[in-house]
Amino acid sequence: MMYRFNLFILLIFAGMNTGLAQYFFPNTPARPVTDTLHGYTLTDPYRWLEDKDDPEVKAWTQAQHDATLHFVNTQFDDIPGLRAEIQAYIDRDVESPMQLVADRQFYTLRRKGDKQSKLYTRLDGKDLLLFDPEQIDPSGKSALSGRSFTKDGSRVAVGIQSKGAEINTYYIVDTRTGKILGDPIEGLRGFAWTDDEAHAYIWVRTQEMINAQQPIEIRLHKIGSARATDQTLLVPEDAKNTGSVFDARYSDLTFFSEGDFYATHSLRMKRTGSNDNPQEIYANQKYRASPYAIGEKIYFYTNHEAPNFKLMVADKKRPGFEHWKELVPEREDVVLESYTITDDYLITVEKKDVLSRMVLRQLDGTIIKEIEAPEVGNIASASYNRDVDALFVGLSTFTSPYKIFRLDPAQLESQKLDWELYYEQDAPIDTDELEAKIVFYPSKDGVKVPLFIVHKKGLKLDGNNPTLLYGYGGFNIGISPSFVGLRAAFINRGGVYAHAGLRGGDEYGESWHEDGMLMNKQNTFDDFIAAGEYLIREGYTNTGKLGIEGGSNGGLLVGAVITQRPDLFKAAICGVPLLDMVRFHKFLIARYWIPEYGDPDKKEDFQNILTYSPYHNIRMGIDHPATLITAGENDSRVDPLHAKKFAAALQNNLGQKNPILLYINYDSGHGSGQSTDQLIDYYEFRYRFMMRQLGM
């Protein structure tokens, strides 16, 4: 039965001077489906919204989206100057760092007015356009999604995806002429040249495979040949597992790996180009190990019995795990984030209390010294380019755009290094009056959690500052200082921006991650709630001025805390979220995340998930914060059904008075795929919603 959609506006007036309308949402009929799972009886009133191809669901979705636009656009005045600031930041010339391949230079550039970035090369002192996705898709809804160069840079495989679907088509391009060679290679997740460069390893992913929850297959493709002749190399047993095959750039070894998000179930290797059967050198159901081969040595970055990670090394003639030796041992107070190796040195990037530094070592791991950055900031990356014999170091801060410096490896032991500024974006963002700091607050169980806070200088701690608290807390992804970017528009208007390093991330190694996953997932939510309480307790804000935001796993976070502590927050933005956790693993690629959340088909995991699943923990009669729920209709990671079902359940919950708004990005996936104009509209809408809700 198709419903009729009518939008009524009833004006009421808030206590100060703002007229605010009651939001009347489109009707959502309840069609209960009852399941008995592990002895529990669950009723799902909005399961019919899971089928996004159903005409009724399409009509309902459009009606919800239209109602959201109408409500915000008619009831929340424009923020003076906000759109212009967002447009100036997004629609400008944005050039990527120059990528050096052999003696060639490559970069992407999106000029003011362009819909998407384009790939260029600098050849004989002139800039040559190599690939323009707008020539493939004039609508501007297809974006660059990856590229793989041959060793001499003479050819590049360029991937594009349409509307954020993360199903890529690769084009092979001659980098001296820009000519596309042969037919495009469709239905891929990734592409990597083999050592002989006559073939490529391709990761096969189609929409049909996603819908059927089939694992990504890795095949060997001969360039220029029909796909029917591709050779299948690796197919994971379960869709929650992934695989990898690659040829080492600086050694004659090929590696095969398979595992889940966090464990290397099997790591094998063979001599590149041989017909040998790959030899297994590592296998574990709990830990992971990543190989990097140079000449006769193989380096392994691993958390094997080392939650803060360590670096090990082996001879390629004796590659088995029993022969691995520690090169950089694990330490309790420092997380080994990454490493790079020159001909003479080992450089490690190490994190302590959420800030990273760079350490120079001898090739045997012995520390020489800490390399001091040229200015105060966080060492975000360090990589050695053997083609040009240069070390590139990324530096990030809250108040200046990301910078990359170039160092001469021969000078690394010098007292005074020559830090050559290699790259810096010119961003039209005013940060002169901003200041940032890190604090540590106690969570519910007393554990100290890091929190970045950014605000204007001279902020008064009078408990009345609009505050936006952001969090993620999962998948071993942590916080680090990074340029505020568009958030400066919020901060410069008197807002406080806070970013919490919740358990589930990598702030303190794998132990910190494990303390916020599986049976410990509630710790993540407790940490976020405690961050809000800290900001109120310390005089930054109050419950009427505190907004929260998170996306993907952070969307689950937002959904969980507004159902657990609806009294604590004024407003929320819940982006591309997981919300029906009882059924999350049944859609798209979500089986990948079973190692993070658990398997609802197992009773113990199900019982834990049910305690926090936002869709199942909406309390009748409770008024939840004003919430903007966003989803990408083409999302191949998190199905938009989560956003739709949660919005319907909240809207129809007795006692809900604050608006629950559903915003659908029809030309987007999991946060990607939108054109420049669409991005401007989207960010202006989000910021206007949040800032007006917080009284700005």
The termini sit apart by 42 Å
CATH architecture of the largest domain, please? 3-Layer(aba) Sandwich
- Overall geometric form: globular
User: CATH H level of the largest domain: which superfamily?
Assistant: Alpha/Beta hydrolase fold, catalytic domain
User: How many structural units, i.e. domains?
Assistant: 3
Total helical segments: 12
CATH class value of the largest domain: Alpha Beta
Q: Sketch the major β-sheet.
A: 8 strands, mixed
Strand line-up in the sheet with most strands: 33-34-36-35-37-38-39-40
What is the third-level CATH name, the topology of the largest domain? Rossmann fold
| Beta-strand percent range | 35-45%
How large is the radius of gyration? 26 Å
Helix content: 10-25%
Low-confidence parts? 1-19
Number of strands: 40
Structural class comes to alpha+beta
Domain Peptidase S9 prolyl oligopeptidase catalytic: 487-695
Organism: Phaeodactylibacter luteus
Function: Cleaves peptide bonds on the C-terminal side of prolyl residues within peptides that are up to approximately 30 amino acids long. Has an absolute requirement for an X-Pro bond in the trans configuration immediately preceding the Pro-Y scissible bond.
InterPro entries: AB_hydrolase_fold, Pept_S9_AS, Pept_S9A_N, Peptidase_S9_cat, Peptidase_S9A, Prolyl_oligopep/macrocyclase
General description of the model:
Cleaves peptide bonds on the C-terminal side of prolyl residues within peptides that are up to approximately 30 amino acids long. Has an absolute requirement for an X-Pro bond in the trans configuration immediately preceding the Pro-Y scissible bond. With 696 residues, the chain is of the alpha+beta class. It folds into 3 domains: 33-87 and 429-694, Alpha/Beta hydrolase fold, catalytic domain (Rossmann fold, 3-Layer(aba) Sandwich); 95-336, Prolyl oligopeptidase, N-terminal domain (Methylamine Dehydrogenase, Chain H, 7 Propeller); 337-427. It is built from 12 helices and 40 strands. The strands form 9 sheets. Strands 33-34-36-35-37-38-39-40 form an 8-stranded mixed beta sheet, with helices on both faces. A 7-stranded antiparallel beta sheet has the order 10-11-12-13-14-15-16. Strands 5, 6, 7, 8 and 9 form a 5-stranded antiparallel beta sheet that branches. Helix 2 (82-90) packs antiparallel against helix 12 (676-693). The protein is globular.
